Amino acid sequence: MSAAGWLELAHDDPFGVHNLPYCAFGQERLRGTGVRIGDRILNLAAAEERGLVDAGGAFLGQGTLNRFMSAGRPAWARVRERLTELLSAGRHRDAVEPLLLPIAQVRLGLPFEVADYVDFYSSQEHATNLGRLFRPGGEPLLPNWKHLPVGYHGRAGTVVVSGTYIPRPHGQRKAPDEAAPTFGPSQRLDIEAEVGFVVGAPSDGPVAVDDFRAHVFGAVLVNDWSARDLQAWEYQPLGPFLGKSFRTSISPWVVPLDALDAARAAGPAQEPEVLPYLRAAEHHGYDIDLEVRWNGTVVSRPPFAGLYWTPAQQLAHMTVNGAWARTGDLYASGTVSGPDPDQTGSFIERTWNGARPVRLDDGTTRAFLLDGDTVTITGTAPGPDGVRVGFGEVTGTITKPE
Amino acid sequence: MSAAGWLELAHDDPFGVHNLPYCAFGQERLRGTGVRIGDRILNLAAAEERGLVDAGGAFLGQGTLNRFMSAGRPAWARVRERLTELLSAGRHRDAVEPLLLPIAQVRLGLPFEVADYVDFYSSQEHATNLGRLFRPGGEPLLPNWKHLPVGYHGRAGTVVVSGTYIPRPHGQRKAPDEAAPTFGPSQRLDIEAEVGFVVGAPSDGPVAVDDFRAHVFGAVLVNDWSARDLQAWEYQPLGPFLGKSFRTSISPWVVPLDALDAARAAGPAQEPEVLPYLRAAEHHGYDIDLEVRWNGTVVSRPPFAGLYWTPAQQLAHMTVNGAWARTGDLYASGTVSGPDPDQTGSFIERTWNGARPVRLDDGTTRAFLLDGDTVTITGTAPGPDGVRVGFGEVTGTITKPE
């Protein structure tokens, strides 16, 4: 079968049969889960109802992917193999084509119900930059940073799908030279470009590093919107809270881990050597290229491949204390920043706290987000035969406070 | 009607008709929600099925309280009034008595599905003690503490019901005089005695301080188990993570806010004055007395009434940035500690980091928790006519690591 198959997609379509990301959608009376092929989605409930796919009923009557995600890797692999066949072999065309919906005609929803949301802090460049900006004069990288993937729990209930408007949050902020805090709309609204991993098969105890692929279903793009003024005032000693919890956006497409096989890579060397529970026999890094557009202007290209901690190490760490991982747990990488300013995944880094504003294509300049600004993060990864795997985009527009 | 009613409870039974806390239970083929009266529970699905209570079907076929909690205060008040009548007026005895189950014969479950879990840090005495212990030499209370209720998100997926065993967590720890971290079972396992508040009616934006009672359904006891060695090594700069996320225990009874009317009290005076969004017209403090037993020995009596920040201020703060509150959101007070050592809600405070071990009734001494130790936290609050309102207990026993 050709990569293009009966759908006659371009050979290098990032949403060819080598990708097959899953989604949830709603459309008038129709609501369900789907899989993307080119610029269409296959209605999975309809496919299962007609016996074209057998996911043990996991697609029937479901508005989210959670039930399918909980089925585990053997089921994911079986369904993926079958979908590949249905969307490639010409003999299935007559049965499958009526179940395809143009993406432009559906409303894409949050692809899964988020159980717990954790955000890591795994880019050494980002952690160093933020340390310099938030704790000037101190050691930017704290002593624990190279021994464990630092992370914290975020607010699962405010994770929203790409396209959802982002009301500018209110809150307390206090500049160092002010005597007391004031209250008002954030004046330092920022983004964090990240990649998130989604737990499918739950665990009732620690997940070994090399068991990562047995539990994690796939990956999404994440924009962890951040109000830096709120965050700076509130975050000691218990960490970020309202500066992050107003909204977190994710892409509507969950890219299956199986689609990212060609993107697997060794992470950076880790020195000092990590403790045994964080050592892996396999490569669990991923070579994913992100691109950040601010009102259409590309302002940054953060390289995920440079992250110090892999998603497999993050999951192993997160559960090593006996915490369960549940279907729908979302854990994000933390801001992806490379060594160069135009590789940074946040604007506080990109503009160095506003000191070096960026110029947009319309001639205006920006330090932080203005009302009406739109930020779009896209991502692609190497696929088979030199074809890219598309993550699609996570986008959001800032509105005045609600 | 007498407070004892046809059930012939003692006048001062802390679970008389003035209390009526809700629960979820399982028992062989029977699974549902209930309301406690004395040492029995009324099966609410059965009561609604038979037309004795009308909760709009919220009790039918439900294994948790979430659906009822989402119905809002008018529904809660109507149901409470009807339950009071059913359990007081003798004419209902024949219909109601067959639906009562002895508590000893049911297994109590997690009373609601936890949406997001937030833990605050609202006792000035606790924050000061922990500041001294975790940041010796520094200012114990950070500059933001009296301006906002400091808090962070915890792990919702590991909130368990009272009685669940608590496996000692593994993790990284590093003493200041050690060159590198080591890995192993926590050697400084601790408790935090807290009171948690449960959101019933959701909000799609900020909740004003004085709207607290329109959204919050009731209160539970919380033990936020804490591995101090893990926490000390990991918590900077993003806050506690694995030192807390292994398990958090809550009592099986959700005490309705309406049962706590007589316990309402002014919080402590707040100086400096707080920002307008944290100012209240009504009293939202609660006078709840906690008691902590370590293997049966009472080691502490933390006074909730002394908390600096009220649960109404906590909810207002948590949502002021536009974050939604969902049905099932649980937010806890943070450790409740009074000014005296025998009023502290954690053992790291009670034993001053192990320097002043406590002697138990069996003659042994303790600094932190040993395998096999059981901690039980109980609570009561003033009710009408001098009768106490019981919270029951949250208990847990430490087991060897899984």
Automatic annotation (TrEMBL), chains A, B:
EC number: 3.7.1.2
Domain Fumarylacetoacetase-like C-terminal, chain residue ranges per copy: 119-389
Domain spans labelled Fumarylacetoacetase N-terminal: 18-111
Top-level EC class: hydrolase
Keyword list, A-Z: Calcium, Hydrolase, Magnesium, Metal-binding, Phenylalanine catabolism, Tyrosine catabolism
Pathway(s): Amino-acid degradation; L-phenylalanine degradation; acetoacetate and fumarate from L-phenylalanine: step 6/6
Tagged with keyword Secreted: no
Cofactor(s) in the UniProt record: Mg(2+); Ca(2+)
A Pfam match: FAA_hydrolase_N
Name this polypeptide is given: fumarylacetoacetase
Name of the gene encoding the protein in the UniProt record: fahA
